[in-house]
Specification:
The chain contains six helices and four strands; from the N terminus they run βαββαβαααα. The radius of gyration is 19 Å and the shape is globular. A two-stranded antiparallel sheet has the order 1-4. The protein has a two-stranded antiparallel ribbon with strand order 2-3. Helices cover 53% and strands 7% of the residues. The protein starts with a strand and ends with a helix.
């Protein structure tokens, strides 16, 4: 296991810098140097007040098989949550007041999270699944957005080939 940081959660408290015995953490770039990280040390994970650092395994287990009826039900539920998300997005834009907009936004975000969880459970968002690899290849070919992490996507695809 090695440490990774979720940049969106990081509050730059920098306690990880002080507890890391190898200097693997870098708050300027948000990266944790995997080659310096001591496997399973957890000092940075336990010290982080915003819970932005977690441990991930060196390799992921193979995807578990699911029955087609279960997968179909999960996909149907995910599609329903996606439709609800779109409805709440429209409501968020047209709500008559601020409390209604905030509620619509919260519901939109909740629907998004549930749809993502359902897709992840059905195997669509596991890095080692064919679905994710196909999606990443498609994104690399088609996405022109500068915010898309192209290098990270290429590196992940390379690692999954091994």
């Amino acid at each position: 296991m090695y440490a990774v940081r979720n940049i969106r959660l990081c509050t730059k408290d920098c306690l990880c810098l002080y507890v890391c015995p190898t200097g693997a953490t870098d708050t300027e770039t948000g990266q944790i140097d995997r080659s310096k990280c001591i496997s399973g040390c957890r000092l940075c994970v336990d010290a982080c007040p915003s819970h932005a650092i977690s441990l991930v395994p060196e390799s992921y287990p193979p995807q578990q098989e699911k029955k087609q009826t279960v997968l179909a039900a999960m996909r149907k539920r995910s599609a329903s949550k996606s439709a609800q998300e779109q409805a709440f997005a429209l409501l968020e834009q047209t709500a008559p007041n601020e409390p209604a907009r905030r509620l619509a936004k919260a519901m939109r975000c909740s629907c998004r999270l549930m749809a993502e969880d359902l897709l992840r459970e059905s195997g669509y968002m596991l890095p080692q699944s064919e679905n994710v690899q196909t999606l990443l290849k498609s994104e690399l070919e088609n996405i022109k957005d500068n915010d898309f992490p192209r290098d990270a996507a290429k590196r992940l695809l390379e690692l999954l080939k091994q």
